[in-house]
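Progress note, sequence design subtask.
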């Protein structure tokens, strides 16, 4: 399976962002990819909520989603659209929703980000995703002609129970689109994604946002593709663009035979705490 990965610097204009995505779909097809993976918040990245609100739509009315579906159908390629900010969440909040779109433009799977990033950083940055977004409540696997893809988004990567559930259910590729902050990216991005790949015995494809954005934030970049042995097959550094990697599914099967951790897993009972 050949995958393409978009590393982008999403801005505050959905029309401009949609044009970048449509071009990336064409680049992916021209490069021989079976599937394109895009970052978290591919349609709009704007921490000014009043300004962003003018562009927010539900799934049926979102122009970025419509543009990507049309491009996938025109080019005849699958797309993992990392995520979009959409209206329609619980109690009036938004959802951070990813989509798997097939080569006819049909939506094959949807995933709402479960774990929300609520944190105060030493840099002075403060993020409260739960103020604006409702959390998802279910894990999702998308079935494609090449592999079963377990879906997740950014901060989810810090919660291994999600990937345990996905790999127990048959996921062979883990998708981790992200808009990772620079300080946490430098410290944890590579090590956590390699750990997720190793413990799940799965490929990881992590399309990321990069650089200084129009809304003032900075993201880490370094979109990665990691194999089940923990080897980095692709690291896109800090610049924008489309990268490619080939996933050898026979290697996945071989690694799972050599390290049968999935078969050796056992339920964990209650924790005994000594007095």
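Output:
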């Amino acid at each position: 399976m050949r995958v393409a990965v978009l590393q982008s610097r999403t801005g505050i204009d959905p029309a401009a962002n949609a044009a970048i995505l449509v071009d990336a779909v064409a680049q992916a097809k021209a490069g021989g990819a079976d599937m394109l993976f895009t970052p978290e918040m591919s349609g709009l990245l704007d921490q000014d909520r009043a300004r962003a609100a003018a562009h927010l739509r539900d799934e049926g009315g979102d122009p970025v989603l419509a543009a990507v579906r049309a491009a996938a159908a025109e080019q005849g390629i699958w797309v993992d659209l990392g995520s979009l900010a959409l209206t329609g969440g619980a109690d009036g909040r938004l959802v951070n929703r990813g989509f798997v779109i097939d080569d006819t433009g049909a939506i094959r799977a949807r995933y709402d980000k479960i774990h929300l990033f609520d944190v105060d950083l030493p840099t002075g940055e403060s993020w409260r995703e739960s103020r604006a977004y409702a959390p998802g409540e279910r894990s999702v696997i998308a079935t494609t002609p090449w592999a079963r893809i377990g879906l997740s988004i950014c901060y989810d990567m810090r919660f291994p129970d999600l990937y345990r559930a996905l790999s127990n259910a048959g996921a062979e590729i883990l998708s981790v689109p992200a808009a990772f902050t620079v300080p946490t990216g430098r410290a944890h991005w590579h090590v956590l994604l390699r750990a997720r790949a190793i413990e799940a015995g799965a490929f990881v494809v992590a399309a990321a946002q990069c650089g200084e954005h129009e809304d003032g934030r900075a993201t880490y970049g370094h979109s990665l593709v990691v194999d089940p042995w923990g080897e980095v097959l692709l690291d896109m550094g800090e610049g924008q663009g489309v990268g490619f990697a080939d996933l050898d599914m026979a290697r996945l099967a071989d690694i799972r035979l050599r390290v049968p951790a999935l078969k050796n897993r056992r339920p964990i009972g209650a924790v005994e705490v000594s007095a």
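The mean pLDDT is 96. Work on this subtask will continue into the next period as scheduled.
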